[in-house]
Design the sequence.
């Protein structure tokens, strides 16, 4: 209260308001460290962090971790059971399953990141436009979101991947065309609440342009929401892309994608159950890691809601 | 806004969405540049065949005319002709719709039952090992791709233990695919159920019911559960596209003869009239189900206004 009184006595000028705004920004940085502290103290979140780091490590150092080549076939040892030479056995072409799974981590993460970037870019842009400008733009974007969300993601993506042809980039496009709607919705509602905040009004009152309001105040404040969104969307992106590959509509063999490895192993379920089971386990393990992180981040950013 | 006005507004919004859905389903074939006839028949098709397909599907007409003709046929109940089977799509879909519906509904029932039970137990025994197990199991199912969960169940119960048939269409063959779908989706109901139950259990009227000396299970089932179930309706509408999508994929794993298997084969064979028809049927079902869920929601809880 006393602080307020002294402020009233001071001459109100643009410089003072700018100073206050920058102080508010500094407060935000300390908030981030608070979030990190909360995140670290969450055991499941930390487990997720370790799991995902492990997958990234495997993807990056795949050639150093295994003596085999992911494409090298060897019919004489086809479908051999796990042994000291081949820890997870071999597949129908005599390729080392573990090696292919390691290289598959590269494909999975690559697709996951590309999907997040693609759908995140469109979704955040649409969400900002629709939330900030409202009116007709908002109506159009939100109706488009309604329409696209009426299709099950995987079904629309199947149709799109089918027409565009299989392959890594088409998987990204097919899933991104549907996936951006989730970001758009979340970002829009976040923007709507930020728009009402006092500091936006303050920004306008000191004559900031709409563009600088969006880039300086709105987007930075929507970033925590975006981070949570990414950690929530990563599992969806991984599972959906693996599903497309499993159905034969995604990344094509012989490229070692986890989804197509599960599909290939399905034909040898009785003779060589290790192919499908281990490939699926890698998908589950990775997705679980991202889910733990997502949960931890959500709790850390918003400790008032308990999930 | 009066309830009637709200309802009208909501129905109008549903209509706009439905029209949008038909446009997307129609445009899917025109998504990539190039001749749709060639996309359907493949690059080795003869000029004669291409001409025949162009004539049959009015592909030489401008897009909006094609759309209008397509819509006219739809309104008449004609979903078109399959290129691959040279049969009417209506005929081809036949009882497949019912089979997919059966799988979806059974899976949905499983997921709600499991979800509600786990949610209630977790809320009643908050912070106990039961609560913890409920959270972790939910996380596990959510992290498993449904096709893999299906394969694992198939391997254990079908191939190793021989308890259920691994494919077919009978009631026993329904158990595994429905279980796969149910387990995969259960977490989405367990978590909100737990949260809602915790909130309801803290309400005055629950304390009043307990103070009256009512038996614990009556308080839980009659008073708390009834109110905590409301958000399940919202969750149901939200998850419906995912549940249908899931059942389409699971059908492929279990060779369940519904729309899913047909859809995958049609996509791979570029039989686009079939793909368009299935896209349309499923999305219109989702649109209608969403409207119904909104209506039911505002009916069971009049405090909630329908989203405008």
Sequence:
């Amino acid at each position: 209260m006393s602080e307020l009184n002294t402020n009233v006595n001071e001459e109100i000028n643009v410089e003072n308001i700018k100073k206050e705004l920058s102080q508010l920004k500094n407060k935000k940085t300390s908030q981030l460290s608070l979030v990190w502290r909360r995140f670290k103290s969450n055991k499941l979140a930390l487990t997720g962090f370790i799991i995902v780091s492990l997958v990234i490590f495997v993807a990056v150092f795949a050639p150093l971790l295994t003596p085999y080549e992911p494409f090298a076939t060897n019919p004489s040892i086809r479908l051999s059971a796990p042994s000291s030479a081949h820890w997870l056995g071999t597949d129908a072409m005599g390729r080392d399953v573990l090696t292919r799974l390691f290289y598959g981590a590269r494909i999975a993460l690559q697709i996951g990141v590309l999907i997040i970037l693609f759908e995140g870019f469109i979704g955040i842009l649409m969400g900002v436009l629709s939330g900030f400008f409202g009116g007709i733009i908002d109506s159009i974007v939100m109706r488009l979101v309604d329409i696209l969300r009426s299709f099950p993601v995987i079904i629309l993506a199947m149709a799109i991947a089918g027409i565009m042809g299989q392959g890594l980039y088409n998987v990204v496009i097919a899933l991104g065309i549907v996936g951006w709607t989730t970001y758009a919705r979340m970002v829009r509602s976040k923007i709507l609440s930020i728009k009402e905040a006092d500091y936006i009004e303050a920004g306008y009152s000191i004559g900031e342009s709409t563009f600088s309001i969006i880039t300086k105040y709105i987007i930075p404040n929507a970033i925590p929401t975006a981070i949570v969104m990414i950690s929530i969307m990563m599992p969806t992106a991984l599972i959906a892309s693996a599903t497309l590959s499993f159905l034969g509509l995604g990344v094509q063999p012989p490229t070692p994608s986890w989804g197509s490895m599960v599909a290939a192993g399905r034909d040898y379920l009785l003779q060589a159950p290790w192919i499908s089971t281990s490939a699926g386990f890698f998908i589950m393990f990775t997705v679980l890691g991202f889910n733990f992180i997502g949960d931890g981040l959500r709790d850390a950013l918003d400790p008032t809601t308990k999930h | 806004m009066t309830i009637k006005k709200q309802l009208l507004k909501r129905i109008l919004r549903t209509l706009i969405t439905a029209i949008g859905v038909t446009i997307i389903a129609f445009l899917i074939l025109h998504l990539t540049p190039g001749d749709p006839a060639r996309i359907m028949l493949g690059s080795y098709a003869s000029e004669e065949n291409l001409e025949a397909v162009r004539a049959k599907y009015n592909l030489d007409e401008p897009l909006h005319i094609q759309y209008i003709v397509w819509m006219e046929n739809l309104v008449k109940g004609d979903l078109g002709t399959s290129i691959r089977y040279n049969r009417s799509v209506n005929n081809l879909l036949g009882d497949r719709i019912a089979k997919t519906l059966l799988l979806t509904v059974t899976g949905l029932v499983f997921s709600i039952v499991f979800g509600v039970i786990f949610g209630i137990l977790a809320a009643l025994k908050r912070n106990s090992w039961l609560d913890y197990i409920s959270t972790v199991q939910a996380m596990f199912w959510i992290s498993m791709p449904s096709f893999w969960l299906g394969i694992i169940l198939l391997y254990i119960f079908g191939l190793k233990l021989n308890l259920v048939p691994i494919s077919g269409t009978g009631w026993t063959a329904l158990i595994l695919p429905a279980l796969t779908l149910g387990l995969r989706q259960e977490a989405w109901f367990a978590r909100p159920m737990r949260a809602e139950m915790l909130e309801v259990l803290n309400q005055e009227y629950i304390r009043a019911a307990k103070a009256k000396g009512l038996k614990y299970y009556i308080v839980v089932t009659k008073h708390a559960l009834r109110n905590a179930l409301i958000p399940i309706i919202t969750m149901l509408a939200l998850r419906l596209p995912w549940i249908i999508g899931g059942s389409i994929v699971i059908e492929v794993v279990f060779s369940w003869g519904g729309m899913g298997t047909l859809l995958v084969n049609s996509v791979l064979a570029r039989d686009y009239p079939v793909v368009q028809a299935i896209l349309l049927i499923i999305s219109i079902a989702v649109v209608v189900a969403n409207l119904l869920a909104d209506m039911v929601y505002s009916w069971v809880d009049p405090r909630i206004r329908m989203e405008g």
